[in-house]
Specification:
Number of strands: 3
Order of helices and strands: HHHHHHHEEEHHH
Low-confidence stretches: none
Largest sheet: 3 strands, antiparallel
CATH superfamily of the largest domain: Intergrase catalytic core
Radius of gyration: 23 Å
Mean pLDDT: 83
Strand order of the largest sheet: 1-2-3
Structural class: mainly alpha
Number of helices: 10
CATH architecture of the largest domain: Orthogonal Bundle
Helix content: 40-55%
Length: 271
């Protein structure tokens, strides 16, 4: 698709044309394009939507980026990256002589001290999860799975989506292994589904994770997807729901530093 982008085109018009081109090309996953759209709609268009391309300057971009930095470094970074990618297209269409984002201020994350996940930390995390799960609260019954989901993440170093995509056919409790072969995706129109990974991997399980899986395996199962973790309706759980619950657990227990990334960097092999 050829875009009719000129110097007098507004940023709002460019956003609409660029997103349409990305969806038609099929080069990116829908979830990625949806995220681009969310970033542009929420962070960029309110400030620059009516501006024409020939009015964009590095100074104007800097003002927007700096303001976003007072809210969140993550917002600042996303807005700069997505806007820069979009304006590259405007340069290719000769609507801009150069990309004003390229000379804009650098986005730097504050340095954080890396902390290794120890066995003591492991017990703190598991205790916090059990305490959170035991509280009375409204919502899906699946929240009771959080302790087991965290155990799988701790024992395998797998991502949330990879743990949620586990099927019982991927589990070998005799050999104390699991095969990580897919992740969970949620897309508008497609729903929540299991997407195979390009490179599957087999992971040795520590004893506490084997015990968790044995306990779950002994329960009656009514789903049709063979999933280790399902919703109460027997369907795949969504990654964003688990991420939201984990943030709440961390906040309640004062474990802000324990991110899913800590599990991947330092999976616990003994307990």
């Amino acid at each position: 698709m050829e875009m009719n982008i000129k110097a007098g085109t507004t940023v709002g018009e460019l956003v609409a044309a660029w997103l349409k081109q990305l969806r038609l090309s099929g080069d990116l996953e829908n979830t990625t394009v949806n995220e681009y759209e969310r970033v542009l709609q929420k962070l960029v268009l309110p400030e620059l939507g009516t501006a024409r391309l020939n009015e964009l300057t590095t100074e104007r971009i800097n003002a927007v980026v700096a303001e976003l930095g007072t809210q969140s470094v993550n917002r600042q970074r996303k807005a700069k990256v997505v806007t820069g990618a979009m304006l590259n297209v405007a340069v290719e269409c000769r609507a801009l002589p150069s990309n004003p984002v390229r000379g804009s201020m650098s986005v730097r994350r504050p340095k954080t001290q890396t902390r290794t996940l120890t066995l003591s930390d492991l017990e703190s995390v598991r205790t916090a999860v059990r305490a959170w799960v035991s509280k009375k609260r409204s919502g899906p019954k699946a929240t009771g799975d959080m302790a087991d989901i965290i155990d799988l993440m701790l024992g395998t170093g797998a991502r949330i989506g990879e743990v949620l995509a586990l099927r019982w056919s991927d589990v070998d409790l005799e050999a104390k292994q699991v095969q990580i072969s897919a992740t969970i995706k949620t897309e508008t129109g497609a729903g929540t589904y299991r997407k195979p990974l390009v490179n599957a991997r087999v992971i040795e399980l520590p004893e506490f994770t084997v015990d968790t899986l044995r306990r779950r395996q002994s329960r009656p199962r009514y789903d049709h997807v063979d999933a280790v973790f399902t919703t109460r309706n027997g369907t795949w759980q969504q990654v964003n729901n688990v991420e939201r619950r984990w943030r709440q657990i961390r906040n309640d227990a004062g474990l802000d530093w324990v991110t899913p990334g800590a599990f991947r960097q330092h999976p616990v092999r003994e307990a």
